Amino acid sequence: MDQQDIVFEQIRSSGCLSYFLACKKDKVAIVIDPEEAKIEEYLGLAEFFSARLVYALDTHTQADHVSACQMVRESAGVKVAMHCATDAPYVDVKLKDGDTIRCGSIEVRLIHTPGHTQDSTCLLVGERLFTGDTLLIGGCGRTDLPGGDAERQFESLKKLAALGDAIQVFPAHDYRQACSTIGEEKKSNARMLIGVKEEFVRFMTARKPPLPRNFQKAFEENQTPAHGVQRGFGEGI
């Protein structure tokens, strides 16, 4: 897969990030972690690049904003893909660790990285790793919300650390720079520098950040047909 054959767009909505990728040759596209407020932008990008949107993928069940996966599924005939641990009722393709999906020349490999939520995943496309809330730039997702597990988060970060220092990190939330690498995070991310699992678990479980605004509403709506718009506080939710 030649990166020059792929259209890559990062879409920002306050602290939330989503991604649009299209295969130039086959004119098909995917969107990763789509947000309801940006639906018109995803559809506009597909039209601009003369591409048909084929897949929408959420890296995990979001708790700070309403996912656009179901809406693009209904409006554009897109298939929704997530890890099989998800409770979202509108998922068409349920994937397991190591499974891949193809969209033209784009191959997406799912890496199960539980800890932030039980259905948390990272998506590897070439040397780009879409880390959801598992790995943030300078941090990681919180583990005190439903499905969170600090011990599993520690293990997931170690799993990512082994992928290679040149792998580019594209998280679902960004409150600093927009991109990093595994190597940079291994050097400077305080949470990845904790080498002992017990210390990591103590650190994560001792922290009690405030819940996102309207957390319950956003969390429930991302598992039901209901919709709304919600922003989070930036704690990797």
Task: Write up what this structure looks like.
With 237 residues, the chain is α/β, with parallel strands linked by helices. The protein has a single domain (3-206), classed as Metallo-beta-lactamase, Chain A. It has 6 helices and 14 strands. A 6-stranded mixed β-sheet has the order 1-2-3-4-5-6, with helices on one face. Strands 7-8-9-10-13-14 form a 6-stranded mixed β-sheet. Helix 3 (150-161) packs across helix 5 (197-206).
Q: Spans of 5+ residues with little confidence (pLDDT < 50)?
A: 226-235
Number of strands: 14
Compressed to H and E, one letter per element, the order equals EEEHEHEEEEEEEEHEEHHH
Rg on CA atoms, Å: 17 Å
Largest sheet: 6 strands, mixed
Judging by the overall fold, what is the CATH architecture?
A: 4-Layer Sandwich
> Quick one: overall form?
globular
How many structural domains? 1
Structural class computed from helices and strand pairing? alpha/beta
Helix content range: 10-25%
CATH superfamily assignment?
Ribonuclease Z/Hydroxyacylglutathione hydrolase-like
What is the CATH domain class? Alpha Beta
Please work out how many helical segments DSSP would assign: 6
End-to-end C-alpha gap? 32 Å
Overall pLDDT confidence: 88
Question: What share of residues are in beta strands?
Answer: 25-35%
- The third-level CATH topology is Metallo-beta-lactamase, Chain A
Strand order of the largest sheet: 1-2-3-4-5-6
